[in-house]
Amino acid sequence: MNDELIALEERGWNALAAGTGAEFYAEVCTDDALMVFPGGMVLDRDGVMGGLRDSPPWAGYDLYDLRVLPLGDGAATVVYRAEARRDGEEPYRAVMASTYVRVGGGWRLAMHQQTPA
């Protein structure tokens, strides 16, 4: 489970860097998924997809200290530190938590939270 969820989280970052984040997360997010961003912004699935379509891709990123916390049968949270860069901007550093649930034999993202570091 650990390797599978970490690989899924990294696939998400690869999609964000390739400019295909909206497509990736449209497949991976549950219908009632939420994302919590700095500044108190909470977005539902539709809000996330719109934001991803309007955001420039990341030029690069690094993920550190990835850990998986099992939450019982069929659920787990991936916690890690991230540093992401866009051309001409200061790096974005945050602690991230992504909670996944098993749906139909695969993992789906139910909740993601970012805390600036």
What's a concise summary of this model?
This protein is α+β, with helices and mostly antiparallel strands. It is 30% helix and 50% strand.
Strand content: over 45%
Radius of gyration: 13 Å
Order of the strands making up the biggest sheet: 2-1-6-5-4-3
The helix tally amounts to: 3
* Main β sheet profile: 6 strands, mixed
Low-confidence stretches: none
Structural class: alpha+beta
The count of DSSP E runs of length 2 or more, i.e. the number of strands, is 6
The best one-word shape is: globular
What is the terminal-to-terminal distance?
A: 27 Å
Fraction of residues in helix: 25-40%
Spell out the helices and strands N to C.
Answer: HHEEHEEEE
Average pLDDT = 95
Structure report:
It is built from three helices and six strands; from the N terminus they run ααββαββββ. The chain has helices at 2-18, 21-28, 45-54; strands spanning 29-37, 41-44, 60-70, 75-85, 92-103, 106-116. Helix content is 30%, strand content 50%. It is globular, with a radius of gyration of 13 Å. A six-stranded mixed β-sheet has the order 2-1-6-5-4-3. With 117 residues, it is an alpha+beta fold. The two termini are 27 Å apart.
